[in-house]
Amino acid sequence: MSVSSTPTAAASPGSPEAGVLELTLQLTRLGLNAPDLGSAMIPVLDALVAQTSAEGAGYFQLADQTLAYHARAASGVMPEGPAMDALLAHGLPRELPLISALEASPDILYFQDTDGEPAASGFPELGVCALIAAPIHDRARRLVGALLAHVFQPHDWSPPERHLIDSVTGLLTLLAARLDAEEREHAAHEGALRAMGLSLEARDAETQGHTDRVTALALRLGQRFALEEGDLRALRWGAYLHDIGKVAVPDSILLHDGPLTPEMRARMELHVADGVALAQQLPFLPPATLDVIAGHHERWDGAGYPQRLVGEQIPLLARIFAVCDVYDALTNVRPYKRAWTVSETLAHIQASSGTHFDPQVVDALLNVLADATGLSESA
């Protein structure tokens, strides 16, 4: 094992150092525009695999809940087998010799051959021979992440490779600090928004669990549409807040036992505008979250409310959420109706494809439910 000791020097045009500098600048621009930590790391790992002898690379981030380092991004060829499956499922534990070594030293560790190296214990069992382990520390010098790159045969890491790793590690430290702070902020928002959604359920025991159920289904449907992480977050937050405007609806209407009168219906429909007005007071909400709140009662044929939007005028996230909202409402008891069976609900949704719902979204929902395990008639 050796540690990094690459000297710094001014880069002359056309030199390897200049190439590393340009690559670092490119990666910095990509990282600063990335929506989340995993997305920021992928181009960095891709560059490592492309520019060095590493056959694969991964970034592991400390999770406060488990006190283990979990994989956030990977590139290239990764080890396979039960040991790797366990690593991906449970992360790198803090008591792992490599993590202990990284916590104890600010330097990058280079292993020409992991066999017989105490600090690399466990990696030969993964088939990893040569290994780079770069520590990522926060300002308090706490180890918050680890960049690992590997080769499946012994390899002597060259000075140019070490220089690139040194440069990339500095970049990762900056990105990890910024994006980790953003993710912590998102997590705080997440808990608060979910609590707001659940607070409405406290008024109506008949809808208990609706927020979590409809959010989970909407996310599965969003993933079917290959939505990016930022859009999935906006969809999730919109699901939490979709009915938040009902806080202004009187109990005499919200808890009415039976069909609503036209006057009651008109007041109930105002919950959409009320919800948008409330959500606009939260400046961190993305516009797509407001789209879900504003558009989840619109219909594909233009007969919905409040704006009577038609077809693709309705934002995609609202179209996705709308069908999930109806599915959950129909399959669960409400004050004015029994719980429908799954078969009855799907028949209704299919019959409403092209009128109430976007046909593509209906097809995707059917595929998601068909793929789900444990779906029963009593769902």
TrEMBL record:
List the Pfam families: HD_5
What SMART domains does UniProt report for this protein, alphabetically? HDc
- Matches recorded under InterPro entries: Cyclic_di-GMP/3'3'-cGAMP_PDE (IPR052020), GAF-like_dom_sf (IPR029016), HD/PDEase_dom (IPR003607), HD_GYP_dom (IPR037522), HDIG_dom (IPR006675)
Q: Which NCBIfam families match?
A: HDIG (TIGR00277)
Q: What is this protein called?
A: HD domain-containing protein
Q: What is the organism field in this record?
A: Deinococcus radiopugnans ATCC 19172
Q: Where is the HD-GYP domain?
A: 185-379
